[in-house]
Amino acid sequence: GRVKMSAEEIPVHAVELGKNFCLYFDELECDALCKEKTLYRVLRNVNSQLLVVRPDLNVAAFEDVTDHEMQSGKGMHFSIHCYKTTTPLAGMPVAFSVQVGDKSYYMCCEKECGEMIVRFKEGEVPKEIPGESNIIFFKKTFTSCCSKAFKFEYSLEQGMFLAFEEEGYLRKLTLKKLSRKDEVDETMKISL
Question: Which of 41, 73, 97, 185 is most enclosed, with most CB atoms within 10 A?
Answer without folding.
Answer: 97
